[in-house]
Amino acid sequence: MTDEDAPVPACDNDVWTQFRKHTVARIGLARSGAALATKPLLDFRLAHARARDAVYETLDEARLVAGLKKFDLPVVSVSSAAPDRKSYLMQPDLGRTLGRTPATDAEAIFGPYRGKHYDVAFVIADGLSACAVQDSMGIYLTWQSGMPRTDADRNCISNVRPEGLAYADAGFRLLHTLRAIRARGISGVQLKDDSDRLLIDDTRN
After folding, report:
1. Helices (H), ranges, the chain
2. In 3D, which of 173, 191, 171 has the Cα closest to residue 182?
3. To 5 degrees, how large is the angle CA 14–CA 15–CA 17?
4. The Cα angle at residue 62 between residues 58 and 67, in degrees rounded to 5
5. Rg (CA), the chain
6. φ, ψ for residue 147 (rounded to 5)?
7. How confident is the model over 35-84, as pLDDT tens digits?
8. How many CA atoms does the CB half-sphere of 179 hold within 13 Å?
9. Region class of 183: left (phi > 0), else alpha (psi between -120 and 50), else beta
């Protein structure tokens, strides 16, 4: 073994150990020559494989609906225009359109709720990761959603999970943003998110 083949430690290990206490990011990884050492490389490949598998997982709809019943609010289950997971991955836009088949006619399912006043509607979808609903998810907020809305009309609260944006902080940001959206009648790039400033001010008091 030459000196170039010998594993290279991740700088001062004590320093990186302190940093790792505050993040789950892959930082200060050991190297072997110009490449990653074997262990961090295998860890990365395992995480990448799990992420790819998650894309093909299906949403446990029954479990999700059962968990929402405790809130005593209307829960409606509908399907998108994508007939299966493979079709959705091939044509992601199908996920933005509600199903129209006799068994999953969204228009008919939503019929009893038309004309009633609701302050907000929450849509829980699997998107590119079905397990994200119970793990790490993003929250997208839109004022008066529908055509011809675009991504520029949406606000996003991302990385909601214990190791990322904590649930309590995400709830605070969600409520603050919803109030701002309703008060101003706008969302997306037109609406500045200042919830971080409020969280900082709250910790100082």
Report:
1. 13-20, 38-55, 61-68, 85-90, 106-110, 167-184, 195-204
2. 191
3. 65
4. 115
5. 22
6. -70, 140
7. 889 999 999 999 999 888 888 888 888 888 898 988 988 898 888 888 88
8. 8
9. alpha
With residue 140 as reference, give the H or E element that holds it.
strand 137-142
* Global pTM exceeds 0.85: no
Name beta bridge partners: 137: 160
22 closest CA partner among 136, 163, 161, 137: 163
Structure tokens at 27: 């930082």
Each residue of 42-64: b (16+ CB within 10 Å) or e?
eeeeeeeeeeeeeeeeebeeeeb
CB 17 within 8 A of CB 10: no
- CA-nearest of 166, 163, 158 to 137 is 158
**Residue positions counted in the chain:** 205
Domain ranges of the chain: 40-135, 138-205
What pLDDT does residue 108 have?
84
Give the amino acid at 129. S
Alpha carbon 183 to its chain's center: 25
